[in-house]
UniProtKB/TrEMBL annotation, chains A, B:
Similarity comment: family membership: Belongs to the APS1/VSP family.
The protein's name in its UniProt record: Acid phosphatase
Gene3D superfamilies the record matches: HAD superfamily/HAD-like (3.40.50.1000)
Segment forming the signal sequence: 1-26
Keyword Signal recorded: yes
GO MF annotation: an example: nutrient reservoir activity
């Protein structure tokens, strides 16, 4: 194909010139073409806000919140679909496993690691993706129907961590906010997702109804400690999985910007 | 200026074709030109890892760490220079101020808010940018020389939060890991940066030497509580500013991916 090289170069120069002198064009194209820093005033402000919002949620700065801001839904979709979520979870899993390897186990079967279930071992992303990525109010009936399907997959990172900890000799305790009536489907779902060999699966029974998650989970951890377990590590997607009393020696917060549980 | 429009269009089509069929070129240019999602397999893996690493640091999942991974220096540079750091801090400041507005103040002057100083009220970014963004080991002599210059600026977000809290009637307590011998330069630097009207500036004195930050800061908060202060909020860039005992009702972790203090 014949084309004039010099004309093309001229066209490029003209196009670049237009971008540099016209801030309107410049900002309009900046979401597609990343210009050098000095020519881009800021990242698109909504995406940038949503990144800040997500960090505030993950660091527990946001406090109690009910729904994902509607303007951040597409940021969350991108976060999950482009693989950054998996990357973020993987970094946490690696830190947890590195820490676990430094522990001198007593070898009496009492060296324990606690895992939450939903969004820690099992991913409900399919449900949330179909329900606004957490931007619509929680619907317990609808979510319960999804749980009863028992088709939630595991995370690559949590499977690696879970299996790695078992291999190191840790006793695994699963501690979930799910109800005792969901024991059977939860067990089957976990097995189908690739988990096995846990020592306990602790669910809410009648006396736990209505308790805040941090209270219920702290009480259950305390019971385990009273049984002689040493809780070296705890992994959860909610700060209420990790805080309160009878906390683990180290806690690992895995990412979940879709919902908050007090 | 004369140029052949059709030749230029041909050149563009050729160039785009080359990008789409050649993944090597495609990945090499993707850091400059953002291609549509389907043509970019994933974000460049280093940037993606560094984003995960930064989140792990901010959520305290990384535990104790000494230097920023060298491969993440350019990600941090981008984080600061493109404004995402400021955006992230601003989101935290807004959450803190929203929370502060919900508090019913006793009005006896004992409603307190604690601030750390370095990387919370004063930015040492100029120093760190000139010293590898935290990727080189901490040099106490060199950092001390920088502190003694007294030229660290404030953050827009921290100035807004500080002034907002004062206006609401909170008593401001500054609690820093800096040494008592740096009181004068620290006071002057804070005033120059736009802060004024704090009640206490607490620095490490002889009895605090060698104490872990969380221990020292918890002890000082406890002293304030014993003096009758109610610590409604605490703002710091390190988890050791916020955790331990005598903790605030709510703690706000502001971003700092450049260094870790135990």
């Amino acid at each position: 194909m014949a084309f004039s090289r010099s004309s093309s170069i001229s066209f490029f120069i003209l196009a670049l010139f237009a971008l540099f002198i016209n801030p309107t064009i410049s900002s309009r194209v900046s979401s597609f073409i990343q210009l050098p820093v000095s020519t881009v005033e800021s990242r698109p402000s909504v995406a940038s806000y949503c990144e800040g919002w997500r960090l505030a949620v993950e660091t527990n700065n946001a406090g109690s919140w009910t729904v994902v801001p509607s303007k951040c839904v597409s940021s969350l979709e991108t976060y999950y679909n482009r693989g950054q979520f998996d990357k973020d979870y993987n970094v946490v899993a690696n830190y947890a496993l590195s820490y676990a390897k430094t522990i001198q186990l007593a070898g009496d079967g009492k060296d324990a690691w606690v895992f939450d279930v939903d969004e820690t071992l099992l991913s409900n992303l399919e449900y949330y993706a179909a329900n606004g990525y957490g931007s619509v109010p929680y619907n317990s009936k609808k979510f319960n129907d999804w749980v009863l399907q028992g088709t939630a997959p595991g995370f690559d990172a949590s499977l690696k961590l879970f299996k790695g900890l078992k291999k190191l000799g840790f006793t695994i305790i699963l501690l979930t906010g799910r109800d005792e009536v969901q024991r059977s489907i939860t067990t089957q779902n976990l097995l189908d997702a690739g988990y096995s060999g846990w020592e306990y699966l602790l669910l809410r029974d009648h006396k736990d109804q209505g308790k805040a998650a941090a209270q219920y989970k702290s009480e259950r951890r305390l019971e385990m400690i009273k049984k002689g377990y040493k809780i070296h590590g705890n992994t959860g997607d909610q700060w209420s999985d990790l805080q309160g009393f009878a906390v683990a020696d180290r806690s690992f917060k895995v990412p979940n910007p879709m919902y908050f549980i007090a």
